[in-house]
Amino acid sequence: AEDEEKIFVPTSLSKIVAAVTTGGFEWPLEELNESLGPARGGDFILFAARVESGKTTFAADTVRFWIPQLGPTSGPIIWINNEERSYVVMSRVIQSYWGVTTEELVKNAIKYETDFAAVASGRLLLPADDAGFNSVRKLDRLFKEYRPSVIVFDQLDKVEIKGEFARDDIKLGTLYAWARVKAKEHNAVVLALSQVSNAG
User: Fold this and answer.
1) What's the DSSP call for residue 157?
2) 92 with 55: CB under 8 angstroms?
């Protein structure tokens, strides 16, 4: 018989407490730290909101806050962008990191770029728009190679997945289940953004 400790969750409260209270990424918003606690490897977190309501800005602020929290042996943060142009997204992360206006960022671009690169180089990977990383198949290979600590999907609904689906909700359910598996498979935080209609 296999070792039961490897198969089943222990009843030891001290082991459970240690597992759920150590490590993880603190949120930049104290309200999320209080309501959700730290984001830990294996978590699949979905933020859904209306169009043009600040989802990308929220993700940029979260990522800039998480970059310094990565350990020396941690995998990178990989941002899969299906919304704005990738260069715009990277500039928004840099802008959020320094807490400056767009005008200030442009005026002192070399300084902010150099200082940010020293902190984030190799720790934040955002594929270029024409790199073609927008299908489940290609993303599986990318994640396997880079072993991310965090995966951001902006937006998860636009990732391509093969198959015959009778309805869109079934397709999206399959896609979300795949993203959930990626969180567990890579022990990564998966932060997914999604649009909802006014009805949603």
Assistant:
1) G
2) no
